Target: BatD protein
Amino acid sequence: MRATLFYIFLLIYCVGFSQSDKVQVEIDTTNIRIGEQFQYKILVNETENVIIPKLENLKGLEVVDSLKIEKINNKIIQKYILTGFDSGAFYIPQQQIFIKNQAYLTDSLLINVTTIAIDTTKAKKFDIKGIKTEGYQYNDFEQYFWWVVALLILIGALLYYFIIRKKKEIKEKTIVPLLPPYEEAIEKLQALDKKLLWQNNETKKYYSELTNIIRGYIERELKLPALEITTDELMDVLNDFNNIKSIETNKETIDKLKKLLQESDLVKFAKSKPMDYQIEQDRKDAKSIIDNLKPKKEAIEDEVE
Model:
């Protein structure tokens, strides 16, 4: 019961899911034939701190293309080209849009996909053909069939003896279970160290992989689209979460993360080249960030319950 009340208040306070005039969706048609394309448009009446996640859960429909986001008259417009290859009625489900760290839901839309009708009255007609003689039957080749079978068995036995028998040890593919977010991040950091990227003048690639490891950890551990948003957007969300005590961290860790992400942006986009000691310190800071950025224990315990 406590877990249920917690989720209800958390939903009302932090997420604020709602349908409002902040977000709208449009389609240019509600009826298509199999394989035809149509446009799906998301309109957001805001331009600052807006996050539009990937279009997902389209049962019966497929995304052909995701067009570049447009900003027109203080609005953000995201357009998609969709299609369907199965007949039936399919819903484009509600999409979750984040505006200034508050979530809004769009309306769901119904699309009817129909098959292509065939006009049998216009089908091409052919003349009646004469009766063909009966083709060869199995009995005509039965004796040859058994000779072929015997020959194939002999060839198979020889192949087994000379090839397969000598290579009997087969490496079975093992399914590696997904590691917990923390363990995965630590393993990736250790693997990055072994590549010696920055030591071989590949500093840009090093910082790109380093920050992707941290963003990937945040995305899995805190359930945020950290790999898809900018540095400023990510820091705004984490600061808000820290202020309302929904994550376990401290200001020092937040500041380290901001500094590291900004340093990485400078290396990747401004061709900055940090000193060796700075790179080594950034590597230590990455480990410290992962160690000290966790979801709140109460939320984890309620989720387990």
Summary: Residues 158 and 164 are 9 Å apart (CA to CA).
